[in-house]
Design brief:
alpha/beta, Rossmann fold, 7-stranded mixed sheet, 5-stranded parallel sheet, 14 strands, binds ribose-5-phosphate
Length: 310
Amino acid sequence: MKLLAGNSNRPLAEAIAAYLRANLTSATVQRFNDMEVWVEINENVRGEDVFVIQSTSYPANDNLMELLVCLDALRRASAKRITAVIPYFGYARQDRKPGPRTPISAKLVANLITTAGASRVLTMDLHAGQIQGFFDIPVDNLYAAPLFAPDIENNLGADDLVIVSPDVGGVARARALAKRLDVPLAIVDKRRERAGASEVMNVIGDVAGKRCVLFDDIIDSGGTLCNAADALLGEGSTGVYAYVTHGVLSAGAVARVAASSLEQLVVTDSIRATEGVRVTEKIRLLSVAQLMGEGISRISSESSVSSLFD
Ligand code: R5P
């Protein structure tokens, strides 16, 4: 097995390599003056089972291009099998046509990754499970829930706890976590009654006198979770926490979370944390290195990946 890392999340790649007791393959992944990506693999990979670790997070287009160029380099160097390990799969939110003359960019990105040379993909908490079907190569989609569940139990306990999906689209994901913890589920139903009117948050489920844990795949601007927290407190919840797989946390989000009514936000390191994220007391990081490393190990040894979640 060979592990290759792009530049999007070196600390995670190094932690995965440490878990697997392997070294990262020596490679040069850099830029020309005009920012074109340039890659050279400095070790022989002919006939090898190679895993390229690269999240397509901010700057999404640069990191995607790095991944594609690495895949092309490995294919031309005669690697036997190439797995694109994409802890955070960017462009996933563009998985359908929201209106006429709009692209389905998630499908385009799937085509690009396949054409560049990937034999298979390993990712985590895809925004929508059906994105697996956008690829004609095998896709293993890992879940952060088995990582979050013990952390919730250890830090919050399960008494008077409710898992909450911050929107209708995330219900299946939240239900799986609620089932794992054996606690009830609630849903925040976001609705704009008419164009131009402000959003109304309807809470479905009983949260009065209970502590709530919001569970989502992505936090970007932070608007969804911060507004949901206010709505839950308005319904009598005694405290709101949030667990999110991918901390996109774009401009202004960290300050919004810090000033919000959330008690704490837990995100994984699928996206490299900025200094702002690291120093914000309200935000805690959980590493997915072991989970991703185990996924890689099982793919390499051709053993079951799904049994990781039993
Ligand atoms: C949407 O369907 C996703 O699951 C997240 O809820 C969304 O991307 C969060 O975005 P923001 O933090 O900007 O509200």
